[in-house]
Amino acid sequence: MKVLNKQSIAIILVIICFLVNLISSCPNYPEPIKLDQNDPTLQKAYKEVDSIIQKGMKDNGIKSFIASIVYRDEIVWSKTYGNVNPLDENSPPLTIDNAIRIASITKTFTDLMMFQLRDKGTIDSLDDEISKYFPEFSIGNPYNTKKSPTFRELSSHQSGLPREVPCDFDDLADEKICSEEVIVERLSKMFLIMPSYQTTHYSNLGIALLGRTLAKAANTEYEKYVKEKILFPLGMLNSSYYYDDVKDYLAQGTYLLSNGSYAIAPVEELGWGNPMGNLYSTARDMSNYMMFWLNNENSNILDSTTVNEAMSPISLVNDGDTVYGTPFEMFYDQTNNMWVKSKAGQLLGYRTQMALIKPLKIGMLFSSLYAFETPDVFTKAAAEILIPVYEQLLYEAGSQPQSLVPDFNLQPDISKSTEKEPKKIPDEAFVGTYTNSEGSVFIVDNSTGVLIANFGDDNLFNVSRFSDQYPEILRIKVSNPEDYACWYVVDGSNYELVYFTIESTSYGGIECNSVTAMGQTMSLTSKDPHYLKNNNIFLEKRNKLISKFLQ
């Protein structure tokens, strides 16, 4: 028997990996629809989440904790543990209306402000250098570039700026000691620690600088802008950047002394650094905030396409499945094949995390009134329980798999519409085999009762109408994407518009004599969608052209 050498084994392993990837399909997810929250399966899942939190509290010495879970547009589960003062059993029990310090989750509000101002045209581009709006700012750059940090770099921790604002943390709130002038003067004598986009380097300074630059561009105060343009429109009326506004309902954080006892954490505000982490909020307010990100429906806050942009990845971390966005921190749940968009925050006395499972429109806000060391605040363990339960119940309730893109229906532009009713084109008019001299093929078939298309191969596309105003334009969309390799669904001819040329026949009908698909114009060769099966001459010509192209 022939023994394989190491090189042969390696080649075989590569082939196996390729085949596995080739036959792997893109995961799809059920469309989130209304569910009965009293369903025993869901109630059991929430009890398991409750058990995870209680065990985590016990294991980490947490005395008070607040948790809220949202689904679609409502809070579906919440629970509080302990008291407003965790060290006083006689203080009121916690509620989801007690304020907490969300710390670095504040950064998501600063980035949201950035996207708003970009969409309004207040700033021209996320790739603008901030010196355009904040000319006083400067920092030494010893690298081979003359470019200063941009909005995009600051918002996604790609700027190479130092981590912290150059002021003692205890002095940040003192405007006499840590005024903007003092901070800018100190930065002018410092240097970038690395070139931009070399690696993700988390920078509180970067987000603080981002917020203050945005405020200059908008000619307003940062805190005032966020309050008026983000917090109030989202119904976050109990959220503020100022301790005096929330002190009457603030849940008190704790920290551990060297002797092993607990103490109430002092409240140290951040002054010029407010954009990086000084927002106070409540679990109820933050639930409204999570629902905004999950549903893409409040266009008064942010255009739905910009919401998608804000939740997109920017930089892959070396572990291969953790990604930084602007400024969401994302991880891929390998068990459930789903990205979780998250942001955590920590200040003395508080450790809070917001986690969004956008495909299922599930959000979690977990907050510990004790800043314990942890990669996450129990959200990963909770997600592993909630995701499969929600998927199961959604499919049982008749939810259909989500499309990888929405089913767009173009709204007619009334200003361009004519008085005449648009022509109605029957499905039969599109049916046929379309070809050109270059060997391109497009086939439309309705033998199953619905329109199906292909490009002369085995990859099938569902066909749907684009708009009543443009009846000659059809949309093609990958049929049963789970049947195709993920790379094809993403990179192939997956979601396209095809343009038919139509003409009236002498007997009053309508026929299509050509189509433009994937940039190629093809003429109607036969009304028979199976024409090519009986035309070996054309197939041979096409195969030769394809072979020549591949060479």
Please characterize this protein's 3D structure.
- The chain is of the alpha+beta class and 551 residues long.
- The chain has two domains: 42-122 and 223-396, DD-peptidase/beta-lactamase superfamily (Beta-lactamase, 3-Layer(aba) Sandwich), CATH 3.40.710.10; 414-550, Lipocalin (Beta Barrel).
- It is built from 15 helices and 20 strands.
- The strands form four sheets. An eight-stranded antiparallel beta sheet has the order 2-1-12-11-10-9-8-7, sandwiched between helices.
- Strand 4 (254-256) and strand 5 form a beta hairpin.
- Residues 10-23 and 410-419 have low confidence and may be disordered.
The average pLDDT value, as a whole number, equals 87
Q: What is the terminal-to-terminal distance? A: 37 Å
What structural category do the secondary elements indicate? alpha+beta
Number of H- or I-type helical stretches = 15
Q: Uncertain runs with pLDDT below 50, 5 residues or more?
A: 10-23, 410-419
Label the overall shape: globular
Helix content: 25-40%
- CATH topology category name of the largest domain: Beta-lactamase
Total number of domains: 2
What's the β-strand tally?
A: 20
Share in β-strands:
15-25%
Sequence of strands across the biggest β-sheet: 2-1-12-11-10-9-8-7
